[in-house]
Amino acid sequence: MAFRLKLVPEKTNFDFFKHQVATFGFSVFMVLASIVLVLVMGLNLGIDFRGGTTIRTEADQTEPVDIGAYRSAIAPLDLGDVLITQVYDPNFRADQKVVTIRIQAQDGQEAISPDTQAKVLESLKSVNKDIKIVATESIGPKVSGELIWTAIWSVLAAVAAILVYIWLRFEWQFSVGAVAALIHDVTVTVGIFALFQIKFDLSIIAALLTILGYSINDTVVVFDRLRENLVKYKKMPLRDVMNLSVNETLSRTVMTSGTTLLALISLLVLGGDVIRNFVFAMTWGVIVGTYSSVYVAKNIVLFIGLDRNKEKKDPSEKFFDKTDVATD
Amino acid sequence: MLHISLWKRVLILIIVLIGVVFAAPNIFYNRVEGHNDAVAAAAKGESLTPEQQAAQAGWPDWLPSDIVNLGLDLRGGAQLLAEVNVGEVYKARVDALWPEFRKALAAERGTLGSIRRLNADPGVLRIQIGNADQIAEAQKIAETLNNPVSSLTGVGQKTLAITTEGNQLIIQLSDAEKAATDDRTMQQSLEIVRRRIDAAGTREPTIVREGADRILIQVPGASSAQEIKQLIGTTAKLTFNSVIGTSSNPNEAVGSDQEILPSADQKGLYYILDSLPVVTGEDLTDARPDTDQNGYPAVAFRFNASAARTFGDYTQNNIGKPFAIVLDNKVISAPTIQSHIAGGSGIITGRFTVKEATDLALLLRAGALPASMTFLEERTIGPELGADSIAAGKMAAAVGAVLVVVFMIASYGTFGVFASLALAINIALIFAILSVIGGTLTLPGIAGIVLTMGTAVDANVLVFERIREELRNQQKAKAARAIELGYERAMSAIVDANVTTFLTAVILFVLGAGPVRGFAVTFLIGIITSVFTAIWVTRLFVSIWFARRRPRELVL
């Protein structure tokens, strides 16, 4: 017998509904908490969505960066809301100090004017004469307004397209379950961004859509097996068929999440700071997406109940069975 | 399922081979790029320098030489999104109508009474007539000057919308004419921007129209968006006007056919000019940087024949008077006419630096923009940052690939090796397709490829897990049967799972802009190639291996 790495034993028989009150309740709590976080703390919107300018500067110096000096150098320019942060990355040289400066959109101009940028650079030279601007990005209020709508539309369109497809391929209960899982994933990911105040920009929307694609991929694999087993075990209660299906696909779920996370974590660590937020969103989304395909999607399907050959539903297929509540 | 017909085997191998061959140039990126640049230069009919000839010889002509375009975030460069203020053109059009209407209406002065132009919004011509009861008559006369629109979409519509209000005629461009005008304005603007950027000699700029009134400009290798902005953001409308007087009050009342403009280099000095120019920049045939008699930078120009004659006559009649050279509503100089300037050439002085003179000459040669532009968005990425990003992306991709391969082989043994080979082919196919369609690889695109590595093995995992199950379910199952069943049963899951992912990727591509689209392209291609490699390539490997080894029992 050759050696095989097995993260999941050959035959598992977990009862995924055993703690359904806890797990499903946890999901509901996470979604609600995320909504509250977004409403209370708000999102740290990047310039893509609110207009403004980001300037990335580099200086070769061994001594630590004094953000205060940067701030006081730029203050006389009277540019309104200015946010200065230092960027850290394992790829940087020891004497490479990178700072990003975010400036709000200036009144009466769309993109930053050449002389504003020249003034900023000149002021910064007083902090360190070797400072150079390595990248700038400037977006006017007009475009950022359009981008917000584009972002919202694209997420809604993706959800709608998936809903219709699953409906066509499976039954409507499945598509409700799948979409509930998707909404869960997106909300919880956005919630994390609100909690840690990580910059939320256009690339995060791309990450969200990728999470949608990934999460639905996971969910569909479980559903596909469920569909097969429903035909195979006509008499088995729906709950048990679901458990069996998740158990049968568990090793695949873990394997795929494993390889995807391996790839993403190498990007997260080594891919540079430019795409770090984007990769972070995807990494987090893969974890949440895997969780939701096991614990959220099918619970909803069970909750609605499936019409199996127009038979009368077994009372044990009700969600939050009495015995569960008693034992948990 | 283990038996793949010969023609299918050959077809799969051919696709894989083509993929590898077309992906190969990307491994020798710089060499191939040098070769392509040299070939492009030769095609333009330029004679090649020895270096270029060496570069051309550095990559054989018979091999494919399509390479992936590196996005600005990987190569460094500048990107600008400009909005053309198309409405500005209406004003000039409408202003030019006034003399014509005045003439037509004045011919009927007996019935209409006095005729005056009133101040109105830009792009609107308001004419007041003395006898309010004759307004219908005036409208009739005005309508005789209204021509049909000369565009395909505006058939049957008039160019002007003429309405009345009391004793006033209100004349503006009709909607159909506005649309046709906008289209012409955009075409012209694109052309002028292209000429200016080409003249500045950067490599392969991308200049495309976006939506109704926007232009997206990408210039790889440009050191800053600001420089490009100055180059293309200048309208460069040059006119030569008669000077009526000077003033220190910018709000001084001037006649309706006069305008007051500031001096470019003297603060507080304003010129009152005749608003009808003697000649304009459109009449120039050439402009180049030069020096004036004192050795200061200047721009030498030459007029076409008719403008040369006009200018010659004007100077002859106005010796001793100043005339103004106006650039974009600023008077750059107002020399006094010393003598009759015949021959239609001259120089423009105005305290230029050498660079300013060079730029102005370039702008005048390329022509003026029909309307000014507003920049809505700009991005500049320094080449060093781009190089760092590529290095980081390569490193992350390499490490990710190694981790995935180790994980797959540890989990599935020989089959894991097959899946890893398929993964390598998969990446090659992604690069081949990107190169051939001329797609652009961006940093998010690299992320898309790395993500594909993670998910590409998914289809294989689905199949392998199924095979394992079949082996468990059927006591003493024949290995061949298990493999066949595994492929068969995993198919529906593979298809459903990938169609949904594909849908989201398509939406990303269609609605996405910039970084999102860059990611969507590689992600989309990655989905297609990974399904192909999982369903066909690994299966081919398995079937070849099975035919050779005939394993008695399968350990997976």
Task: Give structural notes.
The complex is a heterodimer of chains A (328) and B (556). Chain A has 328 residues and is of the alpha+beta class. Helices cover 60% and strands 11% of the residues of chain A. In chain A, the strands form 2 sheets. Chain A has a 4-stranded antiparallel β-sheet with strand order 3-4-2-5. Chain A has a two-stranded parallel sheet with strand order 1-6. Residues 310-328 of chain A have low confidence and may be disordered. In chain B, strands 9, 10, 11, 12, 15 and 16 form a 6-stranded antiparallel β-sheet that branches. In chain B, strands 7-8-2-18 form a 4-stranded antiparallel β-sheet. In chain B, strands 3-4-6-5 form a 4-stranded antiparallel β-sheet. The longest helix of chain B has 35 residues, at 515-549. The two termini of chain B are 18 Å apart. The mean pLDDT of chain B is 84. At the A-B interface, helix 4, strand 5, helix 5, helix 7 and helix 8 of A face strand 2, helix 9, strand 18, helix 12 and helix 14 of B. Chain B: The chain crosses the membrane at residues 390-410, 493-513, 519-542. Chain B: Residues 186-243 form the Protein translocase subunit SecDF P1 domain. Chain B: Residues 373-542 form the Protein export membrane protein SecD/SecF C-terminal domain.
| Structural class estimated from helices and strands of chain B | alpha+beta
The number of helical segments of chain B is: 16
Main pleated-sheet profile of chain B: 6 strands, antiparallel
From the alpha-carbon coordinates, what is the Rg of chain B to the nearest angstrom? 34 Å
Rounded to the nearest angstrom, the distance between the terminal CA atoms of chain A is 41 Å
Strand content of chain A: 5-15%
